[in-house]
Write a structure and sequence with these properties.
With 343 residues, the chain is of the alpha/beta class. The protein has 14 helices and eleven strands. Strands 2-1-3-10-4-11 form a six-stranded mixed beta sheet, sandwiched between helices. Strand 6, helix 6 and strand 7 form a beta-alpha-beta unit. The protein is globular, with a radius of gyration of 23 Å.
Length: 343
């Protein structure tokens, strides 16, 4: 009997020991999973991860696990599946993810970038005004992505429609490298693209600027990249989100205060991450059209939602974005640093 009791006690002690070790590992190896693109518009993430700013602000007890993406919808799916905690993404995928989840999956906690979206046309396509777009082949990076929605909104405002909706404008969703290739081969007439692809179409393919999207927005500002957080993660770890925001603010301000150094560092990191080495003239031209800001420019977010709804990408009813933007932690962090809060 004594042997049995000792055996039971030993098992219990072993179980508690294993649980203690497991809990200890869970605490000491906490991981924040982050997703972003290896491109210019995501420069605050690219630089902040590379130079260790985020790691410093989170502290030694938190590990950062990064995943690189090439498309916004893939980021949203990773948020849905619980594989990402924090992500940098365009407004259109963010809106779609919020609406699809019934407002439960994610929150916008800060802005990342404004601007950097151009409509480039071939000079020999003879596109001088909106009416000339009828019958033309215009490319966007992806069906339903931010530039695609912007193009469809522009056409709608000009009284035009894409061919699939009974109109006369052919919209072709293509990868950015394919857009450049087909533009050079004269198989498309124009493209609405993010930087640096706009500058590349001009410098490398002889395109001309038809429209800078910033000209369509009040004060020339609109959200082109946002920081989103999985709602469950935000509720469980608000302190980590706040620390990440503090680092995000620091990196964003550094970029704006040191534009040349930021360009060089961004180019080096993009090359290291993707193998793409952008020439200085391309990078400089792209940087001039992007404003790095932690302001999510909420009014433009609502406008994108309206355009997406009109284009048929959201539910039949108008999207309700109440609760999508949560600036509490951003403004708390700004206030602590005596910086203007975002209204």
């Amino acid at each position: 009997m004594k042997i049995l009791r000792r055996w039971v006690v030993s098992l219990c002690l072993l179980f508690l020991l294993i649980q203690g070790v497991a809990c200890s590992k869970k605490v000491n190896n906490t991981t924040v999973r982050v997703g972003y693109f290896p491109n210019i518009a995501h420069a605050p993430a690219v630089l902040g991860v590379a130079n260790g700013t985020f790691a410093t602000y989170l502290g030694p007890g938190v590990k950062i696990q990064t995943t690189l993406f090439n498309a916004g919808p893939s980021i949203i799916e990773a948020i849905f599946s619980g594989d990402l905690d924090i992500a940098y993404v365009g407004p259109s995928p963010a809106i779609n993810g919020y609406v699809r989840s019934g407002g439960k999956a994610l929150r916008v906690v800060a802005g990342v970038a404004s601007g950097g979206s151009l409509f480039i046309v071939r000079p020999d396509s003879h596109i001088k005004n909106a009416a000339d777009l009828s019958g033309k082949r215009i490319a966007t990076p992806q069906l339903g992505n931010t530039q695609d929605i912007a193009l469809r909104g522009y056409l709608d405002n000009c009284g035009l429609k894409p061919r699939e909706m009974g109109g006369t404008v052919n919209i072709l969703p293509l990868r950015n490298p394919d857009i450049l290739n087909l533009f050079m081969r004269k198989q498309i007439d124009g493209a609405w693209v993010p930087e640096p692809w706009g500058v590349r179409l001009i410098k490398e393919a002889g395109g001309e600027l038809f429209l800078d999207e910033s000209s369509l927005w009040k004060d020339g500002r609109f959200c082109s990249t946002l920081m989103i957080v999985r709602t469950d993660f935000l509720e469980k770890h608000p302190d980590w989100v706040k620390r990440w925001l503090a680092a995000h603010i620091k990196v964003t301000r550094w970029i704006n205060q040191h534009p040349r150094k930021a360009r060089i560092a961004t180019r080096n990191q993009i090359k290291a991450l993707s193998g793409i080495n952008l020439p200085e003239e391309i990078l400089k031209g792209a940087f001039l059209r992007i404003e790095f800001t932690y302001d999510p420019i909420v009014s433009s977010l609502y406008s994108y939602a309206e355009m997406a709804h009109n284009a048929g990408f959201l539910k039949e009813e108008r999207p309700d974005l109440v609760g999508m933007v949560d600036l509490r932690f951003l403004n708390e962090t700004l206030k602590e640093r005596s910086l203007p809060e975002i209204k």
